[in-house]
Description:
mainly alpha
Amino acid sequence: MVQVRMEKAKELLMTTDKRIYEIACEVGYRQLDWFYKKFRGYAGCSAKEYKWRQMKSH
């Protein structure tokens, strides 16, 4: 379940202009701190850093 949520969050980070808290809510996390912790554990970086890295590489 975490993988599905994180992959959806990664997709939303790259395809929308939504704020991170909006994405967290959309993928099922009501507590932003918990989303940050899970995203960092899954992706190896923060959601903000992930978006920055992806935009820089394209």
